[in-house]
Amino acid sequence: MIRGSLVPNITFFDAEGNLDTKKTKWHMRWMFEKGLDGLFLTGSYGSGPMMTNEERIEVFKAAKEVASDFEGKILLPHVGCIDTKSTLELAKAADEIGVDGIGAVPPFYYKHSEELIINFYREIVESVDTPVYAYNNPGTSRFTFSLGTVHKLQAMGLAGMKDSPLDVGFVSTVYYDAKLNHKDFQVILGTSKGWLPFYYMGIQAAIAGMNNWAPEIMTVLVQSTFAGDQGRSEKAYQVMMDLSKKMHFTDSTIASHMGLYARGFDAGLPRKPMVLPPFDDPKYKEILSLLQRGFDELGIEMEIGD
pTM surpassing 0.90? Predict the structure, then answer.
C-alpha cells in the first residue's frame, strides 16, 4: 500500500527550455530530507504533458537514483499522454526502471467514451507488472470517473485511483465500496485538502502540491496524524489549509517555483509558455512572510537558502 505524504513534484528547466536534471534531482533530495514519503512524477505540476517521452523517462531515472539513497521512498511516475502508444512507452520504461506504482490520467483534449477509456487502462495494466493507478482529473482529461467505471477498472486489475476533484460523495463511495466488498483497491487523495477527515475514514495517502515548497509543514501534518496526536495534527491542518488557499493566486506550478525562490532557493524555471514574475515583484516577499508565519505557528524552523 502507498502510504504517507507524496508530492506532484515540479520539473526544472533552464532559460533555453531544456530539462535541468541537476536542479530537479536537488529538489527531490531536499524534499526527501524534509520528510517526504514519495514522488508523483511528471504529472500536472511536473509539466508532463509539455515534455517528450525521453525527458519524462530521464526524470523517472533521476528519481530512482535519488530515492536509492533513502529507505522506503515511494516512486509513482505519471505516464498519461494524449495517445495510447506514448502512454505505453512510458509505462513500460517506468516498469523496467523499477517503481512502486504507475499512474495515468485518461487521454486528454479529445472527449472519449467510457469504453475507450476502459480499453486505454486495460492496455496499460496488461503491458506492465507494476500496479497501475487511474488519475481522476476531469478538469484536464474531460472524463469523469463514475462508480460503474471504477468497478470495470477493478475487474481488470487496476490497483487504485488518485482523485484530485475530491468530490466527497464519490470518493467516500468508492472507498467504502472497496472496503465492504473486500477489494484490493486503494484511493489516494490528489490534494492535501481534506486530509484529516479522509484519514479518519481510512485513506492513508495524499499527493500534496505544498510539498514542493513547504514539505516540513506536510511532514508535521501527516506524521502527527499517524502518531495519533490529534491536537498537533489539527493545528497543522489549519496552517496547511490557510497557506494553501493563499498560494492559489496563480497556476500551481508557477506558485511552487515562486515559493522556493521566496525561501532563497534557486528553483530554475518552468517551461514556456509558463513564466515567473520578475524577482523584484513584491509577491515573493509576501510569500516568504506567509511561510514564516505558518512555520512559526507550528514551532518549526524554516530553512532559508542563499
Answer: yes
